[in-house]
Fold this protein.
Amino acid sequence: MTQSPSPLDTRPKHLKGPRLSLALFRIGWSERQAAEKCDMHRTQLRRCLDGTSALPSDLSGWLLDLEAAHLAHPCPRQRRSDPILAEIRKAG
């Protein structure tokens, strides 16, 4: 009998590029805030956002957990009719 993979098994191990940008957007952090919270130099984070490097697995997992928490518990006063947010929701 084969088990279906858990959601944690299908997550990227190392965030980079557009997927990292999406996670930071959903959390609500700017590039500067993310670098500070992750204890990284902004240039190092910028390389990850550009896709030429990737975040370490511990930071990637932590950011994905934060993203999931933000998605599971949105602000009760979130703008439901914002067209930009609607596009992001469809993409994710």
